Amino acid sequence: MTDEPHLLPLAPDFVPRQVVRSDLGKEVGVIDLFTLERLDDQLFRSQVNQTNVNGTLFGGQVLAQSLAAACATVQDNRPPNSLHGYFLRAGDATKPVVYQVERTLDGGSFSMRRVIAMQRGLPILHMECSFHRPEHNFDSQMPAPDVPPPEAFAPLSEILRANADRIPQLYMDRFGDIAPFELRPVDPLQDLIPSANGLRAIWIRMPGMAVTDCPLLHQIALTYLSDFWLPVTAAAPHVPMVEIGSSLRITSLNHAMWFHRPLRADEWLLYDADSPSIVNGTGISRGLLYDRSGTLVASVTQETLFRPLQPAG
Fold it and tell me: Which of 252, 275, 285, 299 is catalytic?
């Protein structure tokens, strides 16, 4: 590692592309999701917009691109160790996102960056990112849950096809082909019926990330992945995942993440999540991400807004 800024993919020209999840891996490459155009030393612009189930920008992509913009202004001997983002407005998937980075601190071992993601001159997300020069002293963690390996479980796409008669078409269209993810729920019925509690676990990976060995890009990819699973965890005791989008609208309010140990996003990670509370229209979800060896690589917390959709007519 050196004192030079992180070297990340930066696009030379703006080529706006809007894709839905099922187009990913076909129309664009995985790295394209995080590739930014540098407009100035601390100003960047997105190249690809990914939609979510509400038809707006996928929050996980905005989080990942915000982190990528911050990383491009920090020396490469300081990897990211945490981020805290607040979603302020729904993003427009037809417009590029501009990321403005503020160099808040460059201290002896820590750097801090503030990122504002903007569209049409208005902020859609504020993020604070912390970067830390590695220090080797204590090392301990919570043990991983006793869960069979991913090969013991069916892919989510197979589970959906086997239960197509009980799943809304909106959900089938959205998740029947979920590239660039691979998902294997530990409980194959957890998406089909309400859960008795706010506990959910799934094996998850992003195979396309095998094209790079850059540790930083794998952290950015994990940031992208981390937003996918938590919102539905809080709703699980009340509404099955397959009804989200047809009977319930969910909106991420804020997202916090801590990176603990090296990881690869193209290899299987166990996302073990729970939700201690949902009240007053908002729910809190927490997640721990373990690799196959049981090593805890990251922790995540998110607050989500839940609003029932009014029936048509």
Answer: 252
Q: Which of 119, 130, 157, 302 is catalytic?
A: 302
Query: Which residues are paired to 118 by β-bridges?
Result: 98, 123
pTM over 0.90: no
For residue 30, what are the contacts with CB-CB under 8 A and spacing of at least 6?
24, 180, 206, 208, 209, 211, 221
Angle at 35 between CA 105 and CA 94, to 5 degrees: 110
Residue 227 annotated among the catalytic residues of the structure: yes
Taking only Cα atoms into account, the Rg of the chain, rounded to an integer number of angstroms, comes to 19
Name the range with the highest mean pLDDT among 143-152, 175-184, 275-284.
Answer: 143-152
Contact 34, 95 (CB under 8 A): no
Query: All domains of the chain, ordered by start, with CATH?
Result: 1-134 (3.10.129.10), 152-313 (3.10.129.10)
| Catalytic, out of 32, 61, 111, 227 | 227
Give yes or no: 252 in active site.
yes
Cα 245 versus chain centre, distance? 18
pLDDT tens-place string over residues 245-303: 566 777 889 999 999 999 999 999 999 999 888 888 898 999 999 999 999 999 999 99
Point out which residues pair with 38 in neighbouring strands.
44
Contacts of 21 (CB under 8 A, 6+ apart): 50, 51, 58, 174, 175, 178, 179
The secondary structure of residue 28, as a DSSP letter, is B
Tens of pLDDT, residue by residue over 247-263, are: 677 788 999 999 999 99
- Residues with Cβ within 8 Å of 182's Cβ and at least 6 positions away in sequence, in order, are 155, 204, 205, 206, 207
Q: Does the active-site annotation cover 41?
A: no
